[in-house]
Amino acid sequence: MKNASAHAPRVPPGRPRSSHLSRTEQLRVAKRAQRERDGNAGLLEARIKLPAKLSERLLFASRQPGFIDELTRALEAQTVEINLYPQLKLLCWNRRGTYLSAEDAWNLYERNWRFVEPALLEPAEQRLIEMLASRFGGGALRA
Question: Within 13 Å, how many C-alpha atoms sit on residue 111's CB side?
Answer without folding.
Answer: 9
